Amino acid sequence: MGEPRSAPARWVEVGDGVLVRRYDELDLSLGLVLGRDACLVIDTGGDAGQGAEWAAAVRSVTANPWRVLLTHAHFDHSFGTAAFLPCPVLSHPGCRAELVADGETQRTEWVRQYRVEGKPEIADRIAATRLVLPDSMLSGRTELDLGGRTVVLDSFGLGHTDHDVVAHVPDADVVFVGDLVENGAPPAFDGSYPATWPAALSSVLDLTGPATTVVPGHGDPVDRSFVAAQRADIVAVGILCAAVLTGDIGEDDALRRSPFPGDTTRAALRALAERDRKP
Ligand SMILES: [Zn+2]
Fold first, then answer.
1. Taking the model in full, what pTM does it have?
2. Domain limits at 73?
3. CATH code where residue 190 lies
4. Going by DSSP bridges, is the β-strand pair 89-91/29-34 parallel, antiparallel, or unpaired?
5. How close is the Cα of 28 to the center of ligand 1, in Å?
6. CA 245 to CA 165: how far, in whole Å?
7. Residue 138 C-alpha to ligand 1 middle, in angstroms?
């Protein structure tokens, strides 16, 4: 499966037996929840090499059987799965559908992108990666028993994608939220649903208390006030973009008033125009 990627990775413990592996590349955060009898691996990294490094890192912590959860279908979360097989691979049905429809397009685009960025070794690894489709479809709220610990998986409607899955570890007061939240970079709006994303984050906030750790798909773990602030920013950009689409304000005005950089606001505008027009 190729050599582990050279970019360094490190563990962050966010609760008793709840770990996050942080990667420099894309500032990615992958999750591991340890139970007495089994463990849950949350997302698999962006290529076969990163997946192999991640699987070896998990094995350095636990010998228990694993299940994999894909929070969504984007390559950086789902392309590393082969290193974990054979095992159950859980996702929302929409994740599998998107990998079927769009997986090879993602591969082509990111191979090109990494070559443009002067990172041919990552491009080569993505090009050589065997895409794996999830095989265990989640339908609604699902409780996973890992032995002495339950992880609750749920989906909260259209947000970063149409198939985001959140993993809640109630006894540790930790919530893994995929790219519904990003820390250190603006949320990624390409292909998103800006009008309903805030409602999904309200459901995330319903799982949190003052001491909850929220693990975003990118960046360091955050708390509920960070999520609330990012939700407010997404509401604000949604209102601005809706006003552009109705002709009430110009795009320049929206870009100037947006809480996010221009590229992010333009992506939100595209997403809203394509998918849903209600703020
Ligand atoms: Zn991501």
1. 0.95
2. 9-203+215-223
3. 3.60.15.10
4. unpaired
5. 7
6. 30
7. 20
